Amino acid sequence: MVTGYAGWQVEELRREQARLQAEYEAYRRLNLKLDMSRGKPCPEQLQLSNEMLDVLPSGEELRAEDGTDCRNYGGLDGLPEAKRFFAEMLGVQSSEVIVQGNSSLNLMYDALARALLFGVLGSEQPWSRLPSVKFLCPSPGYDRHFAICEQLNIEMITVDMTPEGPDMDAVERLVAEDDSIKGIWCVPKYSNPGGITYSDETVERLARMKTRAGDFRIFWDDAYTVHHLTSRHDELKNMLEACLNAGNPDRVFIFASTSKVTFPGSGVAALAASRDNLSHLKKQLSVQTIGPDKVNQLRHIRFLKDMEHLGRHMEKHAAIIKPKFDLVLNKLETGIGSKDIASWSKPSGGYFISLDTMDGCAREIVQRAAGAGVTLTPAGATYPYGRDPRDRNIRIAPTYPSLEELAQAIDILCVCVQLVSIDRILADQ
Question: What's the CA gap between 429 and 421, in Å, rounded?
Fold first, then answer.
């Protein structure tokens, strides 16, 4: 029995098209406003951390374990207990961590801006004095990484993502032949948007590959390292250790934060790197700031305590959002699974589901969904410059809407995917 649309007769497709269009118009008349454009925690997730607001009694001196008064200046690289917490979370040493403000994206932006102004450890000159600076961008990827490069006038080179991580044959070839390629963006665990965790081989190849640029850097955005959806956790090989073993100890900057662990607007962010990298970095930081928000660091550590408590806290997050992921996956399978018009990721963690439609359809699907009241991440956003060369990738962010809203939104999305796909099939016949 033929189930995929490509095997249907024209008359059957036109009848299906009419049925779907009527369903679409019915949704339009509901005047819905459903937003799945960003990967934000929902209110129930934020509620999990409200107790953190009460862990610092106003009557006590707010001192860290080494006696530091957290209300005052100082502590450039963060509180000792905060450094230890992030070191355990990332599998590194406390001496390889600095803990800063509320945003890892801020740390990434600053690290790249400093590289342009001053270079990195081992640079012969600031990157901004070079004829061109390029970054490799595994795609589909994180739109905010690409926005940083675009604003700082860093040329982006798209590299395809595979189930093991970036296409390493392409990465190795590019970095070996072009000394203007200074770095690569990586979301190595439960990647945005595909939910991919890099294989051990990918990590090892990134660590040991020969680069034409002597000051090449891996920007390792480990944003979802503790964001598991099930009790079976993906394992990610330690990149800092891999770089050290490969003889490239200064190659990687690792970024992480508590942004989706506690409060996205009031989290704590950290950067891990070699001791030499951090020594070089702190000389620059000492001019930029007298110290981070240590009160917030203390508040987080007293609330999250250690890896055991963090694990229990993240299980509460998973209990809230996993049913949303399950709902999306079930509805995609029920709605379009038999039509051979799309495929999607089935992540074990992170915040997104990556939907690939037929080539040339994503932008129109997103527009159709908007017409029925569903706001999605713009088509193309998961590629540099907002240009998906195949116009097929759509990032689904299930976490923020309620289950009821999410169910409606995915039903509408499935209708739009089918309508646009039928249009494309009929146009090609």
Answer: 13
Nearest to 429 by CA among 8, 132, 2: 8
d(CA 49, CA 262): 5
Residue 66 CA to residue 37 CA, distance in Å, equals 43
Q: Are 127 and 111 in contact (CB under 8 A)?
A: no
Average pLDDT rounded to a whole number, residues 29-57:
95
Distance in angstroms (rounded) separating the CA atoms of residues 225 and 90: 8
Q: Give the sheet arrangement for strand 155-162, strand by strand.
A: 97-99, 269-272, 252-257, 217-221, 181-186, 134-139, 155-162, 165-166
Full-prediction pTM beyond 0.85? yes
Name the nearest CA neighbour of 394 among 378, 407, 409, 418.
378
Question: What tokens were used for 419?
Answer: 């309508």
H or E segment and range at residue 241: helix 239-245
Residue 59: which pLDDT band, with cuts at 50, 70 and 90?
Answer: confident
Q: Which amino acid is at 192?
A: N
Whole-number Å distance between alpha carbons of 197 and 161: 11
Quote the Cα angle for 19-411-27, to 5°: 60
Q: Kindly write down the DSSP assignment for every residue of 175-200, as one continuous string.
A: HHH-TTEEEEEE--SS-TTT-----H
pLDDT at 1: 38
Per-residue confidence at 60, pLDDT binned at 50, 70, 90? confident
Contact 314, 261 (CB under 8 A): yes
**Residue 395 banded pLDDT, cuts 50, 70, 90:** very high
Distance in angstroms (rounded) separating the CA atoms of residues 30 and 13: 26
